[in-house]
Design brief:
- The protein is of the alpha/beta class and 374 residues long.
- Among the domains are: 129 residues, NAD(P)-binding Rossmann-like Domain (Rossmann fold, 3-Layer(aba) Sandwich), CATH 3.40.50.720; 120 residues, Sandwich (Jelly Rolls).
- The protein is 28% helix and 30% strand.
- Strands 10, 11, 12, 13, 15, 18 and 20 form a seven-stranded mixed β-sheet that branches.
- β6, α5 and β7 form a beta-alpha-beta unit.
- The chain is elongated.
- The termini are far apart.
Length: 374
């Protein structure tokens, strides 16, 4: 299939093209404002499907809305008709197509143009009146409040909110792309006007507060709470706006002659993940917890994890190595230690259901050594 995408260098275009390139047996024709007219003619002649994403959404000259949104659409349709190409057309419109401003009028005019062309030539068209679309690669400080908020908050720059309670309708870019990539394979049954789901209705205050919470959590080494789909998508979007200089940060390693212990990730509700490095022939542990539970996973080296019930004194040994990924649960009321039996460092990933609290350690030394009590 040969697919033509106009507005290829725009926000939606870049995301759509990236996904389409993952598909097999597709030839992509990418059209943007600097395309040569002869190339556009060739693309329109050969295309089996047209994603028409190009348009003007911001300008100081309102006349450019009509020329960019209606005028360019007319040019495309005339070229398609010139070559008798009856390929289906997807048109990116806007919820503002029902408004009376210059931009809305131009989008409505483009819609009417495509609908009339569809009826005249008996072709399938898919029109989407898109709300605010957010996600990676959207230009900040242009016409997307989410992109602007993400960019500025990530860089400690101020944001402006005129009406904190103002609600905006939002669609996530990958939900949009999921919908668009299925269009060329649809059967004859379809409708002209379509809507992307899910649509989120959020206030500017809610969006900004979430983004600031992401920023604060990251500064403290925490992963923020992600209770729903929108928060997950907004968090992913926020991270995509970090500057490249801000993509790495060093962790504090607690080192001694036995190895090191480093807190990796913390959560507000689900504990933390740490990395324990144990040198050869070294044993760490010999303590128990009353409420704190842990999971151990050896990712490099080999050793033995010993558990002893602090009442019965019964000991269980688990020989572990990175050759076999095996999680060892550390229940409450069990004294435990881990010993490096290999010739290289033993590296253990540890999950604990509590974030470390120096004022409430819940860690008690077992005075009876397990080796002597097996």
């Amino acid at each position: 299939m040969k697919i033509l995408v106009t507005g290829a260098k725009g926000f939606i275009g870049k995301n759509l093209i990236t996904r389409l390139r993952e598909e097999k047996d597709i030839t992509l024709y990418e059209c943007d404002k600097d395309i040569d007219k002869s190339a556009l003619e060739e693309y329109c002649r050969e295309a089996d499907f047209l994603y028409h994403l190009a348009g003007i959404n911001r300008t100081d000259n309102e006349d450019e809305f009509m020329s960019g949104n209606y005028g360019f659409t007319l040019d495309l349709l005339e070229i398609l008709e010139k070559y008798n190409n009856k390929c289906p057309i997807m048109l990116s419109s806007s919820i503002q197509a029902t408004y009376t401003n210059a931009y809305g009028k131009s989008k409505k005019a483009a819609e009417d143009l495509v609908l009339n062309y569809s009826l005249k030539n008996n072709i399938k068209v898919f029109i989407y009146r898109l709300p605010n679309v957010f996600g990676k690669w959207c230009k900040a400080n242009y016409n997307s409040v989410v992109a602007t908020f993400c960019h500025n908050i990530a860089r400690n720059l101020p944001i402006t909110i005129d009406d904190p309670k103002k609600l905006i309708r939002l669609v996530y870019i990958d939900d949009l792309v999921d919908e668009l990539i299925r269009l060329p394979e649809l059967s004859e049954e379809h409708k002209a006007f379509n809507e992307i789901q899910p649509i989120y209705s959020k206030s500017l205050e809610e969006i900004s507060q979430l983004l600031y919470s992401f920023k604060e959590a990251r500064s403290k080494g925490y992963i923020p709470d992600i209770p729903d789909d929108f928060t997950r998508k907004l968090y992913s979007t926020f991270l995509s706006y970090l500057s490249e200089d801000d993509l790495s940060h060093k962790l504090k390693m607690h080192c001694d002659d036995r190895g090191s212990f480093t807190e990796f990730l913390k959560t507000y509700k689900n504990g933390q993940i740490s990395i324990n490095v144990i040198k050869p022939k070294i044993l760490k542990g010999n303590h128990y917890h009353n409420t704190k539970v842990e999971k151990f996973l050896v990712v490099s080296g080999s050793g033995v994890i010993r558990l002893k019930h602090i009442i019965s004194g019964q000991v269980r040994e688990f020989y572990v190595s990175s050759d076999t990924m095996e999680v060892i649960e550390i229940p409450i009321g069990y004294s435990h230690n881990i010993e490096n039996l290999g010739k290289q460092d033993l590296v253990v990933v540890i999950w604990c259901n509590e974030v470390f609290n120096k004022d409430n350690l819940d860690t008690y030394i077992d005075i009876i050594k397990m080796r002597e009590n097996k």
